[in-house]
Write a structure and sequence with these properties.
Blueprint lengths: L3 E9 L6 E6 L10 H14 L4 E3 L7 H12 L5 E4 L3 E3 L2 E10 L2 E8 L11 E9 L4 E5 L6 H6 L6 E6 L5 H13 L3 E6 L10 E3 L9 E4 L6 E6 L1 H8 L31 H15 L4 E12 L4 E12 L5 E4 L6 E2 L10 E6 L2 E6 L6 E6 L2 E2 L6 E2 L5 E4 L3 E8 L2 E9 L2 E7 L5 E3 L19 E6 L2 E6 L6 E3 L4 E8 L5 E3 L4 E4 L3 E9 L4 H4 L2 E5 L3
Parallel strand pairs: 1-8, 1-36, 2-3, 3-4, 9-10, 10-11, 17-18
Antiparallel strand pairs: 2-14, 4-6, 5-6, 6-7, 8-9, 11-12, 12-13, 15-16, 15-35, 16-32, 17-19, 19-20, 20-33, 21-32, 21-34, 22-31, 23-30, 24-25, 24-31, 25-26, 26-27, 28-29, 29-30, 34-35
């Protein structure tokens, strides 16, 4: 049974203002009744401190205390989020999450499923979005840092709350200093107080200065600590600006492109959330693929350059290993005297496909596409999703819709590292644009290329850059990337190779379709307004 992810959408897509977080902490004692003490601290946090968020001490909760907390929240006028203290329920450690919007109070249970990821009929991962209080998720701390679960939440939410009820949580203090940047979120480490506690509660910010990230710490002697969560500040950082707060501390640029911008309603819709979580599921639970092999006719275009212009036939690659050669010993027969009797084979290992040369006479070659260099100062129309390259190396992509502003994406090694909204034209790409932070990209000119818009059509134009701007040509031109020797070559979608410089192939990986009834992982719950 797979782990479920449940998305709770409260449909309030406006960017939240600064939120005040109160964190209650009491010293853990054996056989001690915390209810009276904690109830008084809850009332103090809600009425005197006027908090928006309240985190109760972990390992000290009960069903009765949950009901008391809910009653106190209902008597209050403000919207708020309360994460109650954890306690054992039917053998499992769980914490109650209470969200009050208007007059409605919703109750959720976050369970600690460490070591129980094969448990049946359990929603183990809750993600709360469009709450008006910030997007957030709750994680329990365990003896071993769950890096996979933490990576899952990267660039999805504004706040990740880590609940720790153990005497020693020093390892989380070390990890969260960097995780707040990789996740580009606020990280609240809520620890239980012990006399010999090594790590105190703290709120982490994604600042450039590593020493400044752990910017607030709760003293062990404090019963209530107050933190400010500035989501508008975080949103400015998501736009790619080197934004400073009121104390002059500079936010880091996102390491990857966050998908949860507030400035565009399309980023806050059900479809986007489902796609974002779906992409995460695909990353952590990859689907299986069927492999197809397209054989293309090619014409020489200069020395060891070819133009692919016609798909002759498509072959399903099955069974494995799948041999290609000139004789009946092969699964795919290529009638050409320069092809060896059994020339090469495709095999599978660890759910990945590889190509291997079988000692052929004329060799097996890995190919790569050639890029077309733009003429200087000549406008070239570009469609949404098309890529272009600066200096033949650095990949950029522009995406736009009929009613949405274009988004510029920056890619590194097949991974999107940042995105930037384009609000005015012409838009310049180069080292002189401080919003893009391109100083580390060697060879890019100060004003390398511009994006313009005319009569609803977007254009790119090279501005006499030193190393040029390149695009994918409409036709596929290829050249030799490497000769395949003894080591196998990992095949990916759109990989290209040829046998003896005579038979040309394009690899297609097509996702297989598992039974949705047993592989469903995402549940979307629109909460009533």
């Amino acid at each position: 049974m797979p782990i479920y992810t449940q998305i709770h959408d409260f449909q309030d897509s406006a960017i939240p203002g600064r939120k005040k977080i109160a964190l209650i902490q009491v010293e853990r004692k054996e056989d001690y009744d915390y209810e009276k003490q904690i109830t008084g601290l809850i009332a103090q946090a809600l009425w005197e401190k006027e908090c928006d968020w309240l985190i109760l001490p972990q390992g000290t909760g009960s069903e009765l205390l949950d009901k008391t907390t809910a009653r106190l929240m209902e008597e209050h006028q403000r919207d708020m989020v309360v994460v109650c203290g954890s306690y054992l329920h039917q053998g499992e450690n769980r914490s109650t999450i209470l969200i009050k919007k208007g007059k409605k109070l919703k109750v959720y249970y976050q369970k600690n499923l460490h070591g129980k990821k094969d448990a049946e009929d359990i929603f183990c991962r809750h993600i709360f979005v469009n709450t008006g209080m910030g997007d957030f998720a709750i994680l329990f701390c365990n003896d071993k840092v769950d890096k996979e679960e933490m990576k899952y939440l990267e660039n999805l939410v504004d706040l990740v709350v880590f609940l720790d009820f153990r005497p020693d949580g020093k390892e989380y203090e070390e990890v969260l200093t960097d995780y707040c940047v990789s996740s580009y979120s606020f990280c609240l480490y809520a620890s239980q107080s012990f006399s010999d506690k090594q790590a105190n509660s703290a709120l982490y910010f994604p600042y450039q200065d590593r020493e400044a990230r752990k910017c607030q710490t709760l003293d062990k002697q404090e019963s209530i600590a107050m933190f400010w969560m500035d989501i508008p500040l975080l949103e400015e950082g998501r736009k790619g600006f080197s934004y400073q707060d009121t104390q002059g501390r500079v936010l880091s640029n996102p390491l990857a492109s966050p998908v949860t911008h507030y400035n565009n309603p399309d980023f806050r819709s059900k479809e986007t959330w489902m796609k974002s979580i779906g992409d995460k599921e695909q990353e952590f639970c990859p689907a299986s693929f069927n492999l197809l092999l397209e054989r293309w006719q090619a014409k020489p275009k200069g020395k060891e350059n070819w133009k692919l212009y016609e798909n002759l036939q498509t072959y399903p690659v099955s069974p494995l290993p799948f041999k290609i050669g000139r004789t009946m010993k092969s699964n795919l027969i290529v009638e050409n005297q320069r092809i060896s009797s059994v020339h090469a084979e495709i095999f599978s290992e660890n759910n990945q496909y590889y190509l291997r040369d079988l000692g052929s006479t004329a060799g097996t070659y890995i190919l790569k596409k050639k890029k077309l260099k733009l003429t200087e100062n000549k406008e070239f129309p570009i469609k949404s999703g098309e890529c272009f390259w600066l200096c033949k190396t650095y990949c950029f992509c522009v995406r736009f819709g009929p009613e949405t502003s274009p988004i510029l994406e920056i890619w590194e090694q097949d991974k999107k590292v940042s995105e930037h909204a384009i609000h005015s034209f012409p838009f310049f790409i180069g080292k002189d644009n401080p919003a893009l932070s391109l100083a580390k990209y060697h060879g890019i000119s100060k004003q390398h290329v511009e994006i313009s818009k005319k009569q609803g059509v977007y254009y790119i134009r090279d501005l006499k850059s030193r190393y040029g701007t390149y695009i994918d040509p409409k036709k596929t031109f290829v050249k030799i990337k490497a000769s395949l020797k003894d080591d196998p070559y990992l095949l990916e979608n759109e990989s290209l190779f040829c046998l003896s410089k005579e038979a040309f192939f394009v690899v297609k990986l097509v996702p297989s379709h598992p039974d949705n009834s047993t592989n469903k992982k995402i549940v979307y719950s629109p909460e009533p307004k």
